Each structure stands twice: as structure tokens, then as C-alpha cells.
Amino acid sequence: MINLSKKGMLLANEVVKLVIALIGISLLIYLLFSIYYTSSQDQKLNEAKDTIGRMKDIISRINSGAVSNEKITDISPPSWYLFSFIGTEKKPNSCAGENCLCICDKVIYDNTLWFKNRQLNECDSSGVCVVVKNLSKFNEFEINDPSDGGTNVQISKVGSNIGVKKIWV
Amino acid sequence: MFKKGELTTQQIVILIILVVSFAVILFFLLRLNLGSETDQEICHNSVITRGKSILPVDTFPLQCKRQYVCLSVDGSCEVMTKPEVIKVKTKDEVYKALADQLAECWWMFGEGKVDYISSEALSKNYCSICSQISFDNSVKSIFENKSFFDKKEFYSYLSKNKISDGQTYENYFLINGILNYPGKFGEVDLSKQYYSLMGITSKVSKVGWVLGGALALGALASIPLTGGVSVIAIGTAVGGAVVGGSAGWIASSYLLVPSIKGPSGNFYIPPSVIEVTSSEFDSLNCDEISTSS
Questions:
Q1: Most exposed residue of B135, B139, B189, B204, measured as fewest CB within 10 angstroms of its CB?
Q2: What is the largest CA-CA distance in chain B?
Q3: CA separation (Å) from B207 to B37, B55, B56, B122, B235?
Q4: Of A9, A94, A133, which has the smallest distance from its Cβ to B6's Cβ?
């Protein structure tokens, strides 16, 4: 009789137990991380809403002719980005096909291989956008933490359009 | 010889089969997309809970999310990312898709029977955007390559066609007689996006009445038409909201939304199709949007 089964069976047993344990631990880590991430994202979303609200007010004032430009210092949330979606480019659903300004987290691997429209979906689901019909295109930029110097933004009238740029005060 | 508690090959195979079966069932459940149905149920339940509660309504937040819907002939939709695509082939199918969106919205927010807003010193309009609707380029072919259709045709569809429980859409939305509106109904521009929305006007609290809040009821000032339906019109010539008078309508005015008094005693904006980020939307004077995007 061949005496291989015992050794082999022991190994299979240990592997199965190890795999089950690893799956359990991974699920637990995922759950804890999700809870932390959700609460952190909610806080950032509220900060983004505040910032976009302030920017919207400034844009209204500029469009009404009350002022020609205005600055906002130390915008938040840190590590998120300011995006502009203009003209015929694809926009987040919340922009309703109009030019818009968004504050959202930046995704990696967008529009490569099977990753399609990830940035737009991110801005829709976890970001905040405001429609600015006469917005000029600007390059996206990151919002820095105040400890790293913060990020200041100037909103101004450029011809008949609204320009947004990062400035160093 | 096996030790006690060791897994046999048979047990391992059973375990693997169980895991694979679970994955297959999960895959099909996700494919069924039961989530969207659940979102509507969650919203409806939160509205009912607020309406029935003896506690202050703010104790129970509304849990309603905006849906993104795209009407398309060929199933493609370039103007939105990940929308719910509804395939349409005829005008009636376009109107039915819109009517169903409105009916769903009306149902979610209690069909005018639920007061889910607390009384306030000053009356305010609370709007709920249930879905954002876009039209794919292919839809133009249904309308003889025109880029718009008359809203009156849509209201006519609502008055003639029945929803599943036997009553017409017009009856269900409590807008009987809407076709008697003497002015223009406006157009739906297929290149724009539209909200399917409804609204409720808060009642004036006792404090508000004492403070002379009765005047605030004018927030949704309206002129009765027939069957208790009133209308709010907007004048394109003059801009801003204009309420039509019984003496005659401004020639260029068109219907914005009807205004109705629901069984709950509140005034409501029945489910309507309103252009996104437009002067019409601004004219509704929505103090708060009670749905999240």
C-alpha cells in the first residue's frame, strides 16, 4: 500500500485552513477600511460642498459685474482636485451637459483598457460639481494641505468667460 | 489514517462547490439589478416614515437619490455616463417613458397624500429631483429629425393613457383639466437635459399665522383653472415668473408647472418635466432640493 495519502491530505488540509483564514482576515480588513474610508470621504465631500458654494457665490458676483476677480485662500479638502469640463468633452452627469467646475478625488487608470469614464463617475458619485456656463478650460490641480502651503484660487473674468487658476499669495 | 477534525477530499470538494455556487447566485442577483428598485423603496419608506412620525420630521432624513435616465433608439447614450438606458421607437414610447418617470416620482413622494415637511413660519417650496433625463441623438429620428417636441402632446398623452391601476396619468397626478390651459405649453428640447421633479409647499405654522404668515401662502400664487388645478406660467418676454391672470395670458407666456392642493392639505408641484439649470427651474423658487445626486 502506498503511504502518500496521509502526507498529501495533511498538506491540503493546512492549505484550505490557511486560505479560509486569509479570506476571513481580508474581509475584516476590507470592512474596517470601508468604514474608515466612508466617514473620511463624507467629511471631505462636505468640505468640497462648502468650497464649491463659496466659488459659486464669487462667480455670481463676477457675472453680475459687482467685481472682476476674487481670491479664495486655503481651499479644502486636501488631496482632492479641481477639474473643469468644457465644450464637447464628456462631462459628469451632474453637469447636465453644461460647462462645469468640479471638486473630486482623482482616480488612477482612467480610459485605459477596460477602465472607462472612471473620473467622471468619481465626480458624480463622490464629488461635487457646479454648472458655470461661461467657464474657461483650466488644467486640473490638486488642493494642498494647509501644512504644505495650502491652495489659493483666483476666480476672474477673462473676456466674457470665467477663469479659475491656482495662485501663490 | 485520518486524524479527527481533518478535512477529507470530499469535504473540500463540497466546500469549493458551495463557494462557486454562491458566486454564481451573487452574479445573477447583481445582473437582475434589484438595487434600483430598492432605492425607490428606500426613498418611499423614508417619505412615509417622516409623514407618519409624531417626532419632528427632521429626525428622519429623506433617503432619496437622483436617477440618471437616457432615452435612446439604438441603446447608445453619449451624453451620460452609466445611465439607465430606456429604448424607445415611437413618440408614444417616448411619452410613456417620461410619464413612467413622473409616476415613479409621484409615488415615491406619497402621491400628494403625505406631508413630509414640517410647518414653518414662512411657506417654502421643497423640490425633489427624482431623475435627470437626457435624450440620445438617435431620438430625433422619432420626431421627424426635429430637435424638440411640444409639451402639449405629452400632456395629451397623460390625459388619454392609463397607468397600470386603470386611472389615467392625468388623474393620478391630480392635474385634471390641465389641457384647458389657454396658453402655450412650451417645448422639450431634445438636446437638453430635463429633471423629473415634484415639490411640496410647507404649511404655515401657528407662529407664522400669528406673525402674519398668511401672506406667505402666496409663494405658490396661482390662478384656479378647472377641477382644483392651478397653473404657474412663465413669461418669456418679460423673464422671471409670471402668474397668468383670468383676464388673459401674456401672449408669449407658457405653462411652467401646474400647482395643486393634495389630499394632505399641502400645495404640491405635481411631477413635471423641467429643463436642468434653466430659468424655468429657477422660477420654481425651490428653497431646498430634498434629493441627493
A1: B189
A2: 101
A3: 40, 19, 16, 9, 35
A4: A9
Quickly tell me which residue has 502506498 as its cell: A2
How many C-beta neighbours within 10 Å does residue B269 have?
24
Residue with cell 458551495: B18
- For the sheet with A128-131, list strands across it: A128-131, A100-104, A81-85, A141-142
ipTM value for the complex: 0.72
- Residue B256, helix vs strand vs coil: strand
Among A72, A39, A46, smallest CA distance to A57 is for A72
d(CA B153, CA B1): 82
Environment class of A149 (CB within 10 Å of its CB; exposed 0-12, middle 13-18, buried 19+) = exposed
Q: Min CA distance, B168 vs chain A (Å)?
A: 31
Q: Write the residue in B1, B8, B78 that is nearest to A6 by C-beta.
A: B1
Q: Considering its fold, how many domains does chain A have in total? A: 1
CB B133 within 8 A of CB B70: yes
CA–CA separation, B41 vs B31, rounded Å?
19
Looking at chain A, which residue has its C-alpha nearest residue B195? A96
Q: How far is B150 from chain A (nearest CA, A)?
A: 21
Q: pLDDT tens, B36-83?
A: 668 889 999 999 998 888 887 778 888 898 999 999 999 999 889 889
Instruction: With beta carbons under 8 A apart, name residues in chain A contacting B79.
Output: 97
> For chain B, where are the E strands, in sequence order?
67-72, 84-87, 125-135, 148-150, 187-189, 194-201, 223-224, 230-235, 241-242, 253-261, 267-275, 286-289
For A117, the closest chain B residue by CA position comes to: B81
Which range of residues forms the domain containing residue A22? 5-167
pLDDT tens, residue by residue, B216-266: 444 444 444 444 455 555 443 333 333 333 333 333 456 777 788 889 888
To the nearest whole Å, the CA of B182 is away from the closest chain A CA by 31
Q: What 8-state DSSP symbol labels residue B202? A: P
* pTM for this entry: 0.76
The verdict on B80 touching A (C-beta cutoff 8 Å) is yes
Shortest CB distance from B7 goes to which of A16, A120, A131? A16
**A contacts of B293 (beta carbons < 8 Å):** 93-94, 124
